[in-house]
Amino acid sequence: MINVAVIPARGGSKRIHKKNIREFCGKPIIAYSIEAAINSGLFDRVIVSTDDRDIVDISKKYGAEVPFIRPLTLADDHTGTNDVVIHAIKALEAEGEKIAYVCCIYATAPFLQKEFIQRGLEQLQAAENKHYAFSVCKFNYPVQRSFTIESNERNITLLEPESIGARSQDLPEVFHDAGQFYWGLAQDFVNLIDGGMFSPFAIPIVLPNYLVQDIDDEGDWRRAEYMYKALMADIEGTLKI
To answer: pTM of the predicted model, to two decimals?
Structure first.
């Protein structure tokens, strides 16, 4: 049986044009995900699921396979990631593949490190009562003291008024999905265990904050590039603070 990485990368992107293949610090952003998957040494096949011919060409250039074109019914704004992964699993099984573990890796994850992908599979294989493992990160501010701003931008509403005066150290740490990778047995993606990835059946793989940046708009993109350049300068020993 084989292990497969599935990288969903549709062509349409409204907030950031051609987001999945836009150049990020010298190469298309999807290249970072492809290379991390390949360099992890865990996968027999690294698959990109896309509906876009430009993404096909770039994905193949960086070493991924594109054995099928994703149907347009699975390439709109409302299609969930799990539906895309299930389609990929069934397409490969139709070729005769027998799949053990699948890891869904997001295309816009330039901070993804092979070590954490490896840790996810290791911990999942070692835990008999778990079915999934995915990347998470701690909020860098107590979310209990967060608030919303009404449409007139003048009034705020506290999420937890009772926590506004609490000390940070007295509030429980809260985590969020880091949006990098999601491990599971192929059968558990297809036949979701109750609650799926966000359930007691999942193992959280905690990432450091400096390796996590959600990229949803131009401001996020710019911040991510600053972070990545600083990270590379630190690794190369040229960072000056």
So the answer is: 0.93
